[in-house]
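Our consortium's second objective concerns turning raw sequence data into structural hypotheses that experimental partners can test. To show how far this objective has progressed, the report includes one record in full. It was chosen at random from the queue rather than selected for favorable results. The single chain below, 128 residues long, was entered without modification.
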Amino acid sequence: QVQMAESGGGLVQAGGSLGLSCAASGRTFAGYVMAWFRQAPGKEREFVAGISWNGGSSWYADSVKGRFTISRDNAKNTQVYLYLQMNSLKPEDTAVYYCAADALVVAGTRRPNAYDYWGQGTQVTVSS
């Protein structure tokens, strides 16, 4: 059974930091490209950061580059932890954050509809 569960969201003041985690199991996620997306109210889901299967390559949206860091821990082939460290948070970072994974996308993929597996999301709210 595939499970992807985000945690770590919450309320933080502008300029603060927050770390998100995603626990993925049930597939050989260790070989999957994984990514973080976010969706603010009334807006489309947008790419935040992605990471290759072995962590050797990562890519970011321009809006978060230099502030956010994506990483992963391939604990087992079927048990992977994905992280997003968010620093210097801004009110415009407020959104529901989702982790995503796919076996077939190439590194650098940013389109949400390219990813097959999704978590349920965690709310991040940044107050001004």
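The partners drew two points from this record. The mean pLDDT is 97. The radius of gyration is 14 Å. Both points have been shared with the crystallography group to help prioritize constructs.
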